[in-house]
Design goal:
The structure is a homodimer of 463-residue chains. Chain A is α+β, with helices and mostly antiparallel strands. Chain A contains 13 helices and 18 strands. Chain A is 33% helix and 21% strand. Chains A and B meet through strand 9, strand 10, helix 5, helix 6 and helix 9 of A and strand 9, strand 10, helix 5, helix 6 and helix 9 of B. Chains A, B: It holds the Pfam family M20_dimer.
Chain lengths: 463, 463
Amino acid sequence: MDSIKEYLDKNKDRFLDELVDILKIPSISADPAYKGDMLKAADAVKARLLEAGCDTAEVSPTPGHPVVYAEKIIDKNLPTVLVYGHYDVQPPDPLDLWDSPPFEPVIKETKIHPEGAIFARGSCDDKGQMYMHVKAMEYMTQNDELPCNVKFMIEGEEEVGSEHLDWWIKENKEKLQNDVILISDTGMISKDTPSITTGLRGLSYVEVEVTGANRDLHSGLYGGAVANPLNILSEMIAQLTDENNHISIPGFYDNVENLSDEERSKMAEAPFSLEEYKEKLDIRDVHGEKGYSTLERGSIRPTLDVNGMWGGYIGEGAKTVLPSKAYAKISMRLVPNQDWKEITELFKKHFESLAPDSVKVEVKPHHGGYPYVTPIDTIGYQAASAAYEETFGKTPIPQRSGGSIPIVSLFEKELDSKIILMGFGLDTDAIHSPNEHFGIWNYLKGIETIPWFYKHFTEMSKK
Amino acid sequence: MDSIKEYLDKNKDRFLDELVDILKIPSISADPAYKGDMLKAADAVKARLLEAGCDTAEVSPTPGHPVVYAEKIIDKNLPTVLVYGHYDVQPPDPLDLWDSPPFEPVIKETKIHPEGAIFARGSCDDKGQMYMHVKAMEYMTQNDELPCNVKFMIEGEEEVGSEHLDWWIKENKEKLQNDVILISDTGMISKDTPSITTGLRGLSYVEVEVTGANRDLHSGLYGGAVANPLNILSEMIAQLTDENNHISIPGFYDNVENLSDEERSKMAEAPFSLEEYKEKLDIRDVHGEKGYSTLERGSIRPTLDVNGMWGGYIGEGAKTVLPSKAYAKISMRLVPNQDWKEITELFKKHFESLAPDSVKVEVKPHHGGYPYVTPIDTIGYQAASAAYEETFGKTPIPQRSGGSIPIVSLFEKELDSKIILMGFGLDTDAIHSPNEHFGIWNYLKGIETIPWFYKHFTEMSKK
C-alpha cells in the first residue's frame, strides 16, 4: 500500500483534470431544466467507473433521476464494501455572489488551502468527494491492492431528498448486499484534526403558501382593509419560535433524545473557538436555542429555518402593491428519535391553525429524512479510524454533524448495514453557498486514505 | 357645448387608436432599462398636445425622467387651468398573471364594461385618464369652445415618488401660475354614482435589508446556531403591528387627524356592501385595524404594508440554505397631519431597535408624499360638481381615497392652488395589478365631462 503516495504524485494532474470535467456538467437535480445535464453526468460517472476497474456499470432509471450502479466482485467469500455518493448538485444561485461561474471550475489558492482549491458547484458536495472513491478504486485495481469486493451506487437526487431511492433500493435489494457502506459526503474538523461523522440530523422540508385576495391589489386603495399575505406570513413564521428560540409547534420536542451531562461535557471538549467562529462569519453574536452551546445547537438540537421566502414586488425601485400571495420554504433539522413524517404533520397542523380567517394557507411537504447515529465499536468505524491513523498520523475524533443525508437511515433499515461517514471537506468549503470549493490537499488525502480503509476492513473482518 | 357628444361619436375610434399607440410604449419609470421608452413616451405626449391645439410644447429635462410641458394662452385676463398627469406606469410584473401582454393593448368586454375596456398597463393609471384631457383640449380648440387659458404638465416619475418634481416646479414657478389644478388620476364610486376625490393619503416607502453571516450557509451545519435573516426579518415585521392591527411604531399616531363622530357617520352613508366586497376579492374575512370600518381603514386611517419580501432560495424545488440576507419593501399610507419625513425617521429608528445583535440592519428610505384634503366650498370643486351634473345628471359624492399622489400637497405648497381630482377610473380597473384596464365608456365620459369643467370654472370665476 506504500505505493499509493507515488501513484498520487504521478497522476494528480490527471486526477484533477478528470474532476474538472465532471464539475463542468450543471447537474442540478432541483431544476427540471437540467434534466439533460443530469443524464450527461450519470453517463460520465458510469464511464469513469468502468475505466477505474469495475467489471460492470449501468445507468439505472428511476421515476426521477437515474442511479449509477457499478461493481467488481473478486471473490464471493470476501467482504463487500458498498460506496455511496451523489452526482447531483445544489442550485448555484445567487449567481451574482460567485467570483467565477459555478460550472467553470477554477483552481485558486486560499489561506486555508495554500496548495490550491477547486472552485465550482459540487466540488466538495459531492462530486469531488465521490470521485475520490473512483480514483482510489483505480489505484487499487491498477496496483493489485483491492482486497475485497466493491459496489458503487451514485445517485442523482440527494439534493432533493433522494425521493425515489427508497423504491430503487427495494427493487435492487439483492444486488446491494454488503458488509459496510462507505460515504464521503461530510466534513472533518480541520486539516490537522481528522474526524469521522458519527451522527446526522434528520430533515423535514415544507413549502407554504399564504393567499389573501384573488389578485394583486393597489396598496393605497386596499391597504389596511384587506389582509396582506406577506405581513401575515411574517407573523405566522414569528410564532413558530418563542423568545428563547424554542420551537413552538406542539409536540415537536416530545421524542427528542436528550444527551446526558457526561455526553454533553465530552462534546464540549472538541476544539472550538466562539471568537473565531464569529469572526469568520462576520457576526457580532450567535443566535440559537437558550440553554445550549453553539456546537450543541448545530448538532444535537432540532432547528427550524426559513430557507427561502418571497412575494410581492421584488424588482428595482418601488411598487405599491398589496400582493395576493406570499411563499416560504421552511426546513426543520431533526435529531434522534424524531420521526420526520410525524414532525411534518405536526408542522402542517400547527401552521394552518395560526392562519387568520382573512387568508388561505397551503402547506406542501417537500421531502424528509431520519436522523442517524453510527456506533463507534463496529469494525467499520475501527477500520476507518485505522485508515486515518495511517495517513494523518492521528486518531480521528468522532463527531456529530448538523447536516442530513436522508439515505443513511434508509440504508440501515433496508440493507441492515452500518454506515461509515469518512468526510474530507472543511466547514469553510462553502457547500450549498456561492464559491463552493474543495482543497486539492483534501481531495488527494481522501484518495490516499480510502484504500487503507479497504485493507483494514478486510483484515478486521477475517478475525 | 352640446356639440361634444356629436364630436365624440364621430371621433371615438381615432381617440381609442391614439390611446392604444401610447399604451404600447413600456414607460416603466422604476426600471432603468426602460429609459429610452420613457423618452419615447414623453415625445409622443408632446406631439399629441401640439396636435390638440397647444401653442407651445416641450420635453423639459430633470435629473430623472423629463416633464412634458405645454400651454395655450388665449387671454392673460382669463383664468388659467393647469392640467397634471403622468406618462409613466407601474412595473407590470407578475407577468404570468396577465391574460394578454401588458404593452400589447387589447379591447375586451367585461361584466362591468359591456361597451369594452382597454387592457394594458397604464390604461387607467394614468395614460388613459391623462389622454382624456388631451382629447378634451382638441374638442375645445377645434370647436371654439376653449373659454380660458390652459397649461399641461405631464410628468414621468409619479410611480416612483415624483422625486425631481419639487426641483422642477421651483425652477418653473412663474410659468406654472394658475387658478386651479385639474387631475384625473383617481377613481369614482361606480358608473351610476359619480364622485370626486376630496382626500388622499400620504406615503412613506422604505426598503430594509437584514444581514446575518457574510455568506449563504448550509442550513444543516449552521442552522440553529447562526441567525437566519429571514426568520429575524419575519419577527421584526410581526412586531410592527400589535394584536389589534395597530401600528406599534412609537409616535406613529401622534399627529393623526381624528374625524368627528359626525364625519364618520356621514362617511358610513356611502354605498358599500361588505358581502360584495369580500365576494369580489374572494376572501372569507377582511383584515384591519380594530375599531374602524373597512371604508375607514382604507381612507382615513394610516397603514403599514409589506409590498415585497425576498431572500434565500426561491426557485423550483428545495435548497437547504441559511441565507446571508433578507429584504423587504415596506410602505406606510399616511393621513392628515402626518409628515412623511418624520414618519420615515420614526420607522427607521424603531426598526433598527428591533434587530438582535446577531444581525445587521439597514433601512433605506425610497420616497414619500404628504396627505391632502380638498375643501368642497371652492370654485374649483363647485365647477367640477356642476360638470358631472351636466353629463351624469347627478351630483357627485365627495369621497376620501386611500391612495397617494405625492404631487398634490407639493402643488398646494409651491403654487398656492387648489387641486381638483376628477377621476373616472373604477375600483375594479386593477391598477398596479395584472390585467389593468380602463372602460371605453369611462374614457369617453371623461372627455365629455372635462370641457364642462372649463366652462363652469370660467363662468364662476367671473362672478
